[in-house]
């Protein structure tokens, strides 16, 4: 899998209820969520077509989970990609609500 051309940046955009991954100046994908208390339901993961094939979905989800861990929040995996990701990454099992 090739590396993205620029180190991707993941940020939370609470106004739109999503984490975003940017590559350079481009929005490359999103992780949509809803919040109930301190539990974030990850509902939809999407990497835009021109940014596919660089492993950005895994970077987006792992950095979003790291962010939630730092806040003491939990995650409810709804999106099939996130369910599969969590199944492959036991280091995040403590975050599952």
Quick structural gist:
The protein is α+β, with helices and mostly antiparallel strands and 97 residues long.
Descriptive report:
The chain is of the alpha+beta class. The protein has 2 helices and 5 strands. It has a 5-stranded mixed sheet with strand order 1-2-3-4-5. Strand 3 and strand 4 form a beta hairpin. The N and C termini lie far apart (31 Å).
- Overall CATH class: Alpha Beta
Number of helical elements: 2
Bin the helical content.
25-40%
| Largest sheet descriptor | 5 strands, mixed
C-alpha termini separation: 31 Å
Number of domain units: 1
Number of strands: 5
CATH topology: Aminopeptidase
CATH architecture: 3-Layer(aba) Sandwich
Q: What is the topology, as strand order, of the major beta sheet?
A: 1-2-3-4-5
Order of helices and strands: EEEEHEH
How is the secondary structure organized here?
Layout lengths: L8 E5 L4 E6 L2 E11 L2 E9 L8 H16 L2 E4 L2 H9 L9
Parallel strand pairs: 4-5
Antiparallel strand pairs: 1-2, 2-3, 3-4
Summary keywords:
97 residues; alpha+beta; five-stranded mixed sheet
